[in-house]
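Human: I would love a firmer grasp of how sequence relates to backbone shape in proteins. Could you go through the record with me and say what the backbone is doing? Here is the record:
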Amino acid sequence: MVKVQYKSISVQHITNSSGVFFGDNVQYRWRVQKKTSEGFGNVMGSGNKIKGNTTVKRERNT
């Protein structure tokens, strides 16, 4: 068995498919199916402006 100890934990955001549990617990019938595709990339340098941004993601059929 693996034992992990933290001095403290800070949760900034919980989304629809997230959970925070502590102690001895069992998540009975815990099931989530969700797909999220996000992306913008990095903008580096000074004086940059983003205007009329469009993102296209093509998915492969597996």
Remarks:
- The chain has a mean pLDDT of 78.
